[in-house]
Amino acid sequence: MNVHSYEKLWLVAAMLLIVGFIATITYGSVGIGIAMIDDSQETIDPNEISDHEDFGDPGVEQVAENEYEAHVVARSFAFRPDPIEVPANSDVTFYVTSGDVIHSFSVVGTNVNTMVIPGEISSMTVEFDDPGEYGVICNEYCGSGHHGMESQIQVVPENEFDLTELAVEADESVAADGEVTLTATVTNGLVETHETTLEAEIGDETLEEEVTIDGSDSEAVTLTVDAATLGEGEHDWSVAVDGETERGDVTVGSDADTDTEGNDD
Q: What are the angstrom distances between the C-alpha of 29 and each of 39, 85, 124?
């Protein structure tokens, strides 16, 4: 059978278009690190989100080398946490649920877009290669403040990312001849060992302590200052590490009680 040259040309062009469509769909599905969303996730009571192990205090955690999980709660008219900070060169699995009505979790400029339904947990895995910022918006109308419901994903360089948490127990008051004691517990949320510097100020006194915390572990550091050095009266204190800061005050007096309690920002 004799096929005209124009027909051959159109056949080749059609085949190239078909191959191109298949390649585009394949790349959009798996080539950029996006996993298909399914219904295999556990359900959650939207009225008890605050008591949930993962969504009660949503945030990012490391689960393996270069692998992270981010739990996100959508509620009129905001996302928590905000912003969401993750490191470059990582795979991040987002678990998103709603505490009230239907929302969506849509990352601007990407094909990450999922409906967020109360009682259900949507999940998707995204590969972040380079540092940058991505806007997050809600594409499902959720009420009068829908237009302002937005957040941000901040992808930071690997050497600038940490998951440090700080808790401080401190004397509330001490006698004039005693010691002011601050006990700082630094928790490392990374799976790798983390080395950092703890900085404290008590009145006019400044203290520094180098701290090494094993992966997924905590280290307690005790700092003391002679009350006589501070003098009688009320003195502010602060403890800082990796951008986390706790503040409080202590009273030094000749008949002060020596009470100890935790202080939060």
A: 17, 24, 12
Non-local CB neighbours of 215 within 8 Å, separated by 6+ positions:
188, 190, 191, 192, 193, 194
DSSP 16: H
150-156 and 84-87: which strand pairing?
parallel
- pTM of the entire structure? 0.73
Domains of the chain as residue ranges with CATH: 46-160 (2.60.40.420), 164-263 (2.60.40.10)
Bridge partners of residue 96, in order along the sequence: 72, 122
Q: How many CB atoms lie within 10 A of CB 198?
A: 20
Q: What Cα–Cα distance (Å) separates residue 36 from each residue in 45, 97, 105, 111, 144? A: 24, 17, 14, 11, 31
137-153 residue pLDDT tens = 999 999 999 999 999 99
Cβ neighbourhood burial of 62 (10 Å; 0-12, 13-18, 19+):
buried
Q: How far apart are CA 123 and CA 80, in angstroms?
A: 15
Determine the Cα–Cα distance for residues 21 and 75; give it in Å rounded to an integer.
Answer: 38
pLDDT digits (tens, 9 = 90+) for 165-183: 999 999 999 999 999 999 9
Residue showing tokens 């995204």: 126
Divide the 265 residues of the chain into consecutive groups of 10 and give the mean pLDDT of each group.
74 88 73 52 86 93 95 96 96 95 93 91 92 95 95 95 95 93 96 94 94 95 94 95 95 63 48
- Report whether 39 contacts 54 (CB < 8 A): no
Q: Order of strands, edge to edge, in the sheet holding 233-241? A: 173-175, 244-253, 233-241, 194-202, 205-213
Task: Give the residue among 150, 66, 153 at the shortest CA–CA distance from 104.
Answer: 150
